[in-house]
Write a structure and sequence with these properties.
binds S-adenosylmethionine, alpha+beta, seven-stranded mixed β-sheet, binds zinc ion
Length: 683
Amino acid sequence: MAFLIERDDFPFEFVSQLAEKESWRKEIHRPVYYLHKWWAKRLGSVFRGILLGCVLDDTADLKSEFFEAHSFADVTVYDPFMGSGTTIGEAHKLGFTALGRDINPVAAESVRVSLGRMDKTSIEKAYTQLSDGVGEQVRDLYRSLDSDSRPCDVLYYFWVMQVPCVGCSNPVDLFSSRVFARNAYPKRKPLAHAVCPSCGDVLPVLYGQGEAICHSCGKTFNPMAGQVKGAKAHCQSCDKAFRVIDAVRVNDTPPDYRLYAKLILTQSGEKEYLPVSSIDLERYQECRSLLDNAIHEGRVTLPTLTLRDGFNTRQAMGYGFQRWRDFFNDRQLLGLGLLHRAISELEDEASRDVFLTLFSGVLEFNNMFASYKGEGTGAVRHMFAHHILKPERTPIEANIWGTPKSSGAFSGLYRSRLLRAMKYRECPKELSMGPRNEDSDSSPPFSGSVETDWPPIKSTPRSIYLSCGDSSVSELLDKSVDLIVTDPPFFDNVHYSELADFFYAWQELTLDNNSDPASTRSSREVQDSDREGFSEKLRAVFTDCHRVLKDEGLLVFTYHHSRDDGWKALAKAILGSGFIVINTHPVKSEMSVAMPKTQAKEPIQLDIIMVCRKSDSVTDYVKPSVELALKSAQDKLIRLEGVGLNLSLNDRRVVIYGNLLTAIESACDLDSMTKTAEQVSAA
Ligand SMILES: C[S@@+](CC[C@H](N)C(=O)[O-])C[C@H]1O[C@@H](n2cnc3c(N)ncnc32)[C@H](O)[C@@H]1O
Ligand SMILES: [Zn+2]
Ligand SMILES: [Zn+2]
């Protein structure tokens, strides 16, 4: 029997339309996968569509089944690259037994917590306990005086990176513009704030204005100009121009930062931009000694892990960042250290783990790599906005506990991430395609129970089994799973573990095992800048998938790549592990934020669902000719355009390469087809 997903008429347009809708507010629509950061999360509706397509027969109507309740209690699905657990959660909602594994402990822990036990009463109680205790201490670190000398909360402190001039050694502020705060839509709301280069006062200006007169010192300056332009800086003391990196290289310690402004919340709830005062500078110095004392007295334990050279870490290391704790200033280390300690002392184990995961998510917004997006949007641009570790020249320090008007704060993420996730778990919903925008309830509540015995011994319906480790040696029993649905890393894309170490540096502080590794990096992680290396590691995981999958089972995964070598690497891994590609379906994916420049003009907005079977178990499948595979790719492109998708060259390319994989016997075949594929995509 063929399953719906094996057939050309699998309604990928319908899935794409849902995905498109979900992608606008994914953390609102499926908050259960957004408790913690992970990179390249997939859209839940796509995985619900895939899972249904893998069990419904070819006569089923996905468009109605999608919104029905299901219970595929006898089917075990396995995801060897589970990431943030999208497949596992969606499979659970549909009643499957779900097995998930990931090599990265940060991913594995976040899925365990997100899908595991959460007792609302205990969590709320723990939150109140934290808020009344450590919350007050942390909030106190962010207090100052407003322009009328009344006590106020500080929402954000503004810092600028300084480097010593290579000519005269005087510190040079790396401002590229004196405007440090503006609206996210400056054309509509041009009011901005600038810092005077002569006296340091803060004044309102209009965005784009070429000249401003400082109301304090009376000097005239261009608010849009700074002392640095791209890679070059200019010293005002000795007039020398120099490359920023040359100044940075002088030291092997992280650069210095200067505190220059703040945004405060007055007692009447108004926001005010102000220059820093001597009180602010004293308070910061005070935090430094408080931190020293807290460490000395054992009230705070800070991360000790160091950065290791790698594709993503190199840039930060070039700026002298050697330890992960160097990413934070001393007040952040104090606030985070106190909060971390208080959470790790919570009595209820499940609540403690939930809050440790929430805390870990908070780190992303509260470090010296975060920047200011401006007003009119979630004010803090977190450090991973571009999947890289780029030192920030004008970082923003947010109030860690937060005020009702804060972004990226612990109290804010408690509401926007944790409370939302809990609500979704109680009543999971599907996005509707109807005109009234009403979501429908179709799944029972999440069980809140996760098993970590591995391999699973008995498989009870709807149970979730999770493990952390290399999926090329999954330890699962031979032919024990019915279905594999996954999303492998894409060649040359995110270097998960290099980035995840930022979180792991804090997470490992609460692991009891002394032998824990000093990094989440592993030579077995499927990622490599070398095509052969990537392909070989992916093949090893697929080979294990072949072993654990029942003969009649499907292996289905999503993939995309803009270059032919990404597809060649994939073809080699699939065919080399004993699978063949039966069909492929394009679906709307998220735009990649970490797009290389070469791809920015032709962004990929599609993922290709690759539907595979074990080659030695397929009896009645007839491989299409290359002409037929290309024709089928064109039909798919026409169908996508039919639902209003505007396709780029790279979109056409991924559909064509994906489809060519149905027509090849060996990866070398793809070499001879590359030229044709490029011509067809360009046409
Ligand atoms: C593209 S991500 C999966 C994202 C996921 N679909 C989601 O929605 O979050 C790929 C995952 O594969 C994991 N991974 C890489 N090599 C692995 C290996 N050898 N064994 C298990 N997991 C691996 C990475 O840690 C990463 O989390
Ligand atoms: Zn100089
Ligand atoms: Zn001035």
